[in-house]
Design goal:
With about 450 residues, this protein is α+β, with helices and mostly antiparallel strands. The chain has 16 helices and nine strands. The two termini are about 25 Å apart.
Length: about 450
């Protein structure tokens, strides 16, 4: 274990950066830096530089929630991709040094990074939203009449374009699959989760598959693996494969509205693929660390977001479990068996890796997750790949794209819902866990890391 960490200075630097960022809420967390020093060797200065960078970039502590209404009248920056909620949309906005959650009619059309004028009364959060607002570092909620919201400075052109692509995808999926399955596909592909049926969401939590509706590195990995599998059938050169993958992941990022987790994970996937182009042995953990460092320096507040935490842990589990298996000369049934075993092992790695975080944040552990994740893995891969691919051609062949959605994506999502419903209904599906301190996560993940054995992946 010492050798594996010592040979990955970027991984140690990413950990030190995260410790520096997290220390703003609890200075005792800085003591975790002492655990990294034995592995740093002659590169101890890396840790110090990364830790100090984290301290310098650390977000301010969460502000206190409103206890009484506060008048808002000024220019605000839209800080999240607006999410549809029935006839409304919801987004985060920063105005006057305060962050609020804005609700407005769906007829409004703000875009992430727009600057808009807002006017109204920000109110204390209703019961049940306190923890979520604290996590988002918002102080309250603001309901705005769209007639009271005026655009001051538009977002960069690329962001506006991505927003329009995302809206078209949301409409395409719902028109082709209906509101129920369409909302589920939107959650899988573009993080639009608020319109997913509550019973489905609860089933995903009980089965430990809730991460499939939080588009992140896990989804980029699935999409990238599917694209590479298809490209291999064309026998392209490594350089051509890398450019084709770049195009597919760029398209995915646009469909997702350039959401930060997708951009971060896409960059990591391209770093991994670059290793093959230059014929170097690649290392998933080093690529993950590089993307995490860049992402946290730009968006330091994400260190406290469960979506970011689950994304990093899930991708780390995939990177640690991945093995490249040569299948040349193996019969088709043998290849299928090898791929199925590989998918099951990687799903197990994701399930085990995310379980402690889910227990900490939600107070529950899914006991059926190691079974449910492999069962839905292929369905998620098919739904993502086919859904995005058919959306790409829907502008030219709308009727054909809609029909193909019905015979490919609909059965895949139907199977996913069947697994979630049947497996999640088991009495022993989940175990309630009493609340525990975040410090408990340190020895848990240290023990899991000790189980890892590095296997080089050749170029």
């Amino acid at each position: 274990m010492r050798r594996e960490l010592s040979n990955r200075p970027l991984l140690l630097a990413a950990a030190a950066l995260a410790i520096g960022l997290a220390s703003v809420d609890d200075p005792r967390r800085a003591l975790l830096l002492l655990l990294l020093i034995p592995f740093s060797g002659l590169r101890a200065w890396w840790l110090g530089a990364a830790f100090l960078t984290g301290l310098a970039r650390a977000p301010t502590p969460p502000p206190p929630l409103l206890t009484q209404p506060m008048a808002i009248d000024g220019v605000a920056r839209v800080e999240s991709v607006p999410e549809p909620l029935g006839q409304q949309i919801r987004f985060l906005a920063s105005v006057g040094g305060q962050r609020v959650v804005v609700y407005t009619a769906r007829s409004a059309s703000p875009v992430w990074l727009d600057h808009v004028r807002l006017k109204g009364l920000a109110r204390p959060p209703r019961e049940g939203l306190d923890d979520w607002l604290r996590a988002e570092r918002a102080v309250g909620t603001l309901r705005v009449d769209p007639r009271e919201m005026a655009l001051v400075t538009p977002a960069p052109r690329i962001v506006e374009w991505a927003s329009s692509v995302r809206k078209r995808f949301l409409g395409f999926s719902e028109s082709a699959l209906g509101p129920g399955l369409g909302a589920l596909l939107n959650g899988i592909c573009v993080n639009s989760v608020r319109e997913i049926d509550k019973d489905v969401t609860e089933g995903l939590r009980r089965t430990g598959t809730i991460h499939i509706v939080s588009a992140s590195g896990f989804h980029v990995f699935i999409l990238g693996a599917s694209v590479i599998f298809l490209l291999r059938r064309l026998r392209l050169s490594r350089t051509a494969e890398a450019f084709a993958l770049l195009g597919c992941l760029t398209f995915f990022a646009l469909v997702a509205g350039l959401e930060s987790p997708i951009v971060r994970a896409s960059a990591m996937a391209l770093i991994l693929r670059l290793a093959f182009v230059v014929r170097r042995e690649f290392d998933g953990l080093t690529a993950l660390a590089a993307s995490v460092i860049g992402y946290l320096i730009v968006f330091p507040e994400e260190i406290f977001q469960i979506g970011f935490q689950l994304s990093v842990v899930a991708v780390a589990g995939l990177a640690m479990a991945y093995r490249r298996v040569e299948v040349e000369g193996i019969p088709a049934f043998g290849v299928l068996r090898i791929r199925a075993a590989e998918a099951a092992r990687m799903s197990l790695a994701v399930s085990v890796g995310t379980a402690p975080l889910l227990a900490y944040h939600f107070g529950r552990i899914s006991l059926v997750s190691p079974v449910a994740n492999p069962l839905v893995g292929f369905a998620v891969s098919l739904a993502m790949t086919a859904g995005l691919g058919l959306f790409a051609v829907s502008g030219l062949l709308p009727s054909l794209a809609g029909w193909l959605m019905g015979i490919s994506v609909r059965p895949a999502l139907g199977w996913l819902l069947l697994v979630v419903d049947r497996v999640g209904a088991l009495n022993f599906a989940q175990l309630e866990v009493p609340a525990f301190d975040a410090w408990i996560l340190v020895p848990i993940y240290a023990a899991l890391a000790m189980l890892w054995r590095w296997r080089p992946v050749p170029a």
